[in-house]
Amino acid sequence: MSKNIPARYHPLQVSFHWLTVILVFAAFVLGKYMSGLPNEGGKIVPLGAHMVLGIVTLVVIIARFITRLRLPKPAHVTAGNAFFDWVGKAVHYALYAFVFLMTVSGMSLSMQSGLVPIVFGGSGASLPADFFDFTSRMLHGFIAPALLLLVLLHVGAALYHQFMLKDNLLARMWYGK
Ligand code: HEM
């Protein structure tokens, strides 16, 4: 590799990547779990945990995008096919966009439904009867499976590189010299 183009991502980018994986996974599982709960007092704690996870994800994804623009990064790999290479780039940008939209739609929902004082302010008011009365709930619910699909494509591509093309792509997203 040339002196200016590293063989792997910067350790900060690696940390942001795996932190994003953990946060999005946890927010997703918790979101799915709590959407099945009745809107009663017992839902306040899982809602609060989900909201905190989501907001931390937003901070991490913004920090990650900014550092991605500034830090040196390895060249794009090729799968030996121009179309796949284009899809690979597009999916990476789409992943940032969809995680961002997921967090923003979640925050709009919490504003529209007045959740912050109930969940974090201990206002004692009741939760809204149905989150689906708010447009942002539909958006949040539509973006979630789209993000899941993108993640599956992304993971599938990584495994294809690692085990079929055997180019050890995963090492680029881990620590080392
Ligand atoms: C990457 C970040 C996030 C992910 C992956 C995520 C994921 C999810 C998922 C999968 C659901 C259930 C969707 C469904 O079954 O239709 C959900 C519901 C919800 N999320 Fe998020 N979310 C994120 C961020 C946020 C944020 C930042 C907030 C608020 C500050 C938020 C508030 C909510 C609320 C209020 C619900 C509705 C629960 C219900 O219908 O009972 N989410 N989320």
Explain what the structure shows.
The radius of gyration is 19 Å and the shape is elongated. Helix 2 crosses helix 3 and helix 3 (82-112) runs antiparallel to helix 5 (135-165). The protein has 177 residues and is an all-alpha fold. The protein has helices at 11-35, 44-70, 82-112, 115-119, 135-165. It has one domain. The mean pLDDT is 95. It is built from five helices and no strands. The structure holds protoporphyrin IX containing FE. Protoporphyrin IX containing FE (HEM) binds at residues 24, 27-28, 31-32, 34-35, 47, 50-51, 54-55, 57, 99, 102-103, 106-107, 109-110, 131, 140-141, 144.
Tags for this entry?
binds protoporphyrin IX containing FE
Outline the secondary-structure elements:
Blueprint: H1 11-35, H2 44-70, H3 82-112, H4 115-119, H5 135-165
Helix pairs in contact: 1-2, 2-3, 3-5
The protein binds protoporphyrin IX containing FE (HEM).
Protoporphyrin IX containing FE is lined by residues 24, 27-28, 31-32, 34-35, 47, 50-51, 54-55, 57, 99, 102-103, 106-107, 109-110, 131, 140-141, 144.
Bound molecules: protoporphyrin IX containing FE
Biggest sheet, in brief? none
Quick one: overall form?
A: elongated
Mean pLDDT: 95
**Helicity, in percent?**
55-70%
Order of helices and strands: HHHHH
Unreliable stretches (pLDDT < 50, length at least 5) are: none
Given helix and strand content, the structural type is mainly alpha
What portion of the residues fall into strands of 2 or more residues?
A: under 5%
> How far is it from the N-terminal to the C-terminal residue, by CA?
13 Å
Query: Rg from C-alpha positions?
Result: 19 Å
Number of domains: 1
**β-strand number:** 0
**How would you classify the quaternary structure?**
single chain
Number of helical runs? 5
